[in-house]
Amino acid sequence: MSARAWLVPLLPGIVAAAGVTVYVILLLVVESQVGIAALLVAGVIAVLVAARFGAAARVGAVFAERDDILNLLVILAVLTVTGFFYEDHFVLLMVATVIIYVIACLGLNLQFGYSGVLNFAGAAFFGIGCYTAAVLTKNTGVPHLVVLVAGGVMAALIGSFLLLPVLRTHSHYSAVVTIAFGLLFKIFLEVNDTLGGPQGLRVDGMNVLGWEFNDNIEIGENFEASFYVNYIVVGLIVLGFAFAFVRRVERSWIGLNLDAMRLDETAAASFGLNITRWKITAFTLGNFLTGLAGALFAMMLGFIAPTNFTFGDSLILVSIVLLGGIGNPWGLVVATVMLIIVPEKLQAIQEYRFLLFAAMVILILLFRPEGLLPRPLRTYIPGWKPK
Amino acid sequence: MTGNRKPLLASDGLSKLFGGVVALDQLDLEVFPNQILGLIGPNGSGKTTFFNVVTGIYPASGGQVKFDGADITNLSTQAVYRAGISRTFQRSRLSLSLSIFDNIMIGNHKRLNQGLWFNLVRRDAFRREFEQNFEEARELVQVFDPPLAERMFEAVSGFPMIDRRRIEICRALISRPKLLLLDEPSAGMTHEETTELMDDIFKVKERVEDLTIVIIEHEMGVIERITDACVVLNFGQKICEGTYQEVAQDSQVQEAYLGVE
Amino acid sequence: MDIGLFAQYVMNGLMLGMMYALVAVGFTLFFGVMDIINFSHGDVLMVGAFGGLATYLGLTFLGVENPWVQLAAAFAVATSAMALMGALIGKFLVLPLKKAPPLNTLLITLMLGTVLRETIRLFYPRGANPQRFPSLLPTDAYSFGNFTLRVDNMMLLAAGLLAIIGIHLLINRTKLGLAIRAVAQDEDTAKTMGINFTLIVLVTFAIGSGLAAFAGILHGLYYSEVNFGMGLLLGVIGFSSAIVGGLGNIYGAIIGGFLFAALQTLGVLAMPFASAYKDVFAFGVIILIMAWRPTGLISEKISERV
């Protein structure tokens, strides 16, 4: 097959990815508030126009067929953005934060996107990962890659204390279990002195095999890149694994089990599905991912305090999953970019972001409950066609 | 035609109480291999409750259920399914937002490899299992309705009631159960559609060896046409059994249906 | 322990219990007619308290100084405003999602709670800080050893009890109450009997939310302070009380409220050294209760048709 024949069908996807990359770079470059607002409006109009004239559908079709190419393109796009802003701490911190939040939300997506297991304590499990990282880096010599995993394991372990009530309750009852846990966690951190109380804890930067993540990267005399590049690279690798994992879950009998359980527990049980087993699986794996993201976040920020883990933060994680389109991992990515970057850039709304996000979710629930990027039907094997 | 064979499913003094309400009252019932048994009776006579107790959704308050020689009383609904009993629901309980194929595979749970490693890592092996199951599901759907088999990856919500019923029966059949429990398959369908669906059931019965069916139905035409034998329930008790003709002439049955007390 | 101090704890527990009960009744009413949980309920209470406070400040500004007038106006404005808001919540957020998955109603009310909380924090003057709530009741007090019986507290308690009795009479002795009970029992039957379902749902939301505002003002008067975050805590505790008493059961909710307050008070009494952990303890108890009796101590009727 000639290169041309191979490339042409992919063209809509490549053009879209390039366009989005340029747009994101522009959004990050522009400083003037009016300029940013204009860009946002332009973005919305562009998406609406694309949807109106079927371009969006074509791009979607390409990506549905060749989802491996999409993954590569997105990684390429992130690296392009990172390269473009290689010495800008502020922008790169935002990029890294987006990556870490996506990992955390992938965990939440396993829980209530697929399995219908509610978790309104996402920020608490994220926080468990953070505090685990703080305690381990300060008090032990555990290698930092192990610290990452430990953050996830700790979140999964503490989550297992909630398993009994979560398994035994349904919808609003289990919602209140996790809400209570989220509030308990934050109050506990505030009154507990060994974990730093309201002042929080310092966390060491990541160090892998002698490579100090919190030092800027210097190459030769004239080149110096922000140390956040380190975290973006590690974040991307973790995200790659997490994303592939969640995707494979969805594209397997396991994903089917989780959907069946969410949609009709009684019917699923009548066909042999062990509800307990799959709820435990989804809740534990989800908390693991969220905790892992937390550990990475703590090492990147170098400092954590209880105010990072409020009920409002848990609701933001839920909002991301809902806005993006429940059960669609790509929707998460889009929603995270919107919810993290827009308020950082548009200072005018920074203060109002909880209010705006909550209002947005209300509108989504009323008028487009499937989210911005609705989850497509399951394809078990991308590109597969019945003979 | 039941001969002297042993029953496939037998309930012995089966009772179910909801608070003070007696839904099943010392019910003795036998279903023989390869039979199509009609379960009839007025609303609230305990037909669906019987299905729910047999399949383990409700625990029995007393008595025993035997299936294929083994005691299955109060087994979990998962265990009953693994033993070889599948069912459909009175109010179609398909997952509307999932595809036809997804819905049918939900019914195939026990024959699919559920291991984490298999599903997430051994993708080539998964692919083979997927392709094999797809072919099987497609063949099964083809028996019912060939055009439907070409639309396996469309959401069930886009199909009319009769197709949903077909998909639901396919979901119950895909795991090759020994006993199929059909809970009012004609509900919500027109007379013509019902006739069509009954033809389908016959076709399947011909194709699948060793399939026994218990069907709850209000449409007496259906019962007359497809059942080998009938059991009539009223207030959770068996008031009559025999062929449809025998049952239809029974005075007690007529009373129950006319509501004479 | 000193008997006077003990009496003080009992008094405090009764006050807490009464407020929890008022909140729990709202949850239970909503659940009764719509089978939903309105997670914004606690924040409605908070907005009600701020409404009362604003009314008082407005009257002071206008030169109306009589505390009884101020009090009556605060109650009247806050309860009626919140009743209206409750009806609006029912009409525009809850009823439209009647056919959607229950998760959506839960989320939409949670998000509405955030909107209310943030609105007060951002737009009420200095709303991010706790606000002093005026003492509008007589501050006479009688001392019995270590125990001080304050007249204002007795009046608050009496007001709360009156509200509870009022709800009881409304539900059991009026035609409206009969209609609410009918809808709670079986929506379809109620409709065929000519009951206007939508109207009853809206009225129920109005009653529940008005009650929350009432409780909010009592809360402000008792603690002499209100803040934008108070609703979240009260909401979760009120909801838990309703669950403990079996959702949909009004008397269960009242008992649940007092039970919960008793548990909290006992927790503090038993472990005075750990009083900083009193809320941790409260939430821990909620989680334990849910694990032990997932649908409450007095079980909610569950009848799923299969």
Short note summarizing the structure:
The complex is a heterotrimer of chains A (387), B (261) and C (306). Chain B has 261 residues and is an alpha/beta fold.
What would you say this structure looks like, in words?
The complex is a heterotrimer of chains A (387), B (261) and C (306). With 387 residues, chain A is mainly alpha-helical. Chain A has 18 helices and six strands. Chain A folds into two domains: 1-84, no CATH class; 87-367, no CATH class. Chain A has helices at residues 3-7, 11-29, 33-52, 55-65, 67-84, 89-115, 122-139, 144-161, 163-168, 171-191, 228-250, 253-263, 265-270, 275-301, 311-324, 329-345, 347-350, 353-367, and strands at residues 201-202, 207-208, 211-212, 217-219, 223-225, 303-304. Chain A has a two-stranded antiparallel sheet. Chain A has a two-stranded antiparallel sheet with strand order 2-3. Chain A has a two-stranded antiparallel sheet with strand order 4-5. The radius of gyration of chain A is 21 Å and the shape is globular. The mean pLDDT of chain A is 87. Chain B is built from eleven helices and ten strands. In chain B, the strands form two sheets. In chain B, strands 6-7-8-3-9-10 form a six-stranded mixed sheet, sandwiched between helices. Chain B has two domains: 1-84 and 177-261, P-loop containing nucleotide triphosphate hydrolases (Rossmann fold); 99-175, no CATH class. With 261 residues, chain B is of the alpha/beta class. In chain B, strand 4 (62-67) and strand 5 form a beta hairpin. The two termini of chain B are 34 Å apart. Helices cover 40% and strands 23% of the residues of chain B. Chain C has one domain. Chain C has 306 residues and is mostly helical. Chain C has helices spanning 3-34, 41-62, 67-94, 102-123, 151-173, 175-185, 187-192, 197-223, 230-244, 250-270, 278-292; strands spanning 131-132, 141-144, 147-150, 225-226. The model of chain C is unreliable at 300-306 (pLDDT under 50). The interface between A and C is large, with 44 and 42 residues.
List keywords for this structure.
heterotrimer, B: 261 residues, alpha/beta, Rossmann fold, 2 domains, 6-stranded mixed β-sheet, 4-stranded antiparallel β-sheet, globular, C: 306 residues, mainly alpha, two-stranded antiparallel sheet, two-stranded antiparallel ribbon, 11 helices, 4 strands, disordered C terminus
